[in-house]
Amino acid sequence: MEQLVRLVPIWCWWLIALVLVAGGQQYRVVIAKGETAEVRTELADYRLEVAERDRRATAQARIEEQRRQSVADEEGESARQKLELAQGRAAAAESAAGGLRGEIARLRAGHRATCDTIASQQRQAGASAVVVLGGLLEEADRMAGSCAAALERSRIAGITCEAIHHKIRNSGAFSDPR
C-alpha cells in the first residue's frame, strides 16, 4: 500500500484533498440554502399572520369607533330636539313676559294719571313705590327668563353627555380599564 501511495504524485493528493474540502463546503452551502429557504418561508408566514391580525384589529377598532359615533350622533340629535323645544318654550315665556311688562307699563301710566288728583305727598310716596316695585318686577322677570334658558341648556347638555358615556361604556366591545 505504501508503494501505491508513492506511485500517485503529491500534487494529485493535494488535488484530491482540495476536491474533498470543496465538496464538503458545497454540501454545507446546499444545507444552508435549504435552511435559509425554510426560515424565509416561516418569516413570510409570520408576516402574513401579523398583517392579518393588524387588519382585523383595525377593522374592529373602526367598527367600535363607528358605533360610538353613532351613539353620540343619536344623543346629539335628541339633545338638539330638546334644545329646540326649550328655546320654543323660552320664546313663549318671553312673549308672555313682554305682555306682563306691557301691562305693568299700562298700570304705571294709569297710576300716574290717578295720582295727579291726589295730594302731593301721597302722590310721591305712592308713585315711587309702584315705580320701584314695577321696575323690580320687570328686572326680576328678565333675569329669571335668561337664567331659566341657560339652566335648561346646561341641563340638556349634561344629560346628553351622561347618556353618551353610559351607552358607550355599557354596550361597547371595548371596556373601560378603570
Description:
It is a single chain. By secondary structure, the protein is an all-alpha fold. It folds into 2 domains: 12-51; 74-172. 92% of the residues lie in helices and 0% in strands. It has 3 helices and no strands. Helix 2 runs antiparallel to helix 3. The longest helix is centred in the middle third of the chain and has 106 residues, at 10-115. The two termini are 87 Å apart. The model has no long low-confidence stretch (mean pLDDT 81).
- Overall geometric form: rod-shaped
Helical content, roughly? over 70%
Percentage of β-strand residues: under 5%
Uncertain runs: none
Count of extended strands: 0
Number of helices: 3
Distance between the termini: 87 Å
Mean pLDDT over the residues? 81
How many distinct domains? 2
Integer-rounded radius of gyration? 47 Å
- Mind describing the biggest β-sheet? none
**What is the string of SSEs from the N terminus onward?**
HHH
Going by helix content, strand content and strand pairing, the class is mainly alpha
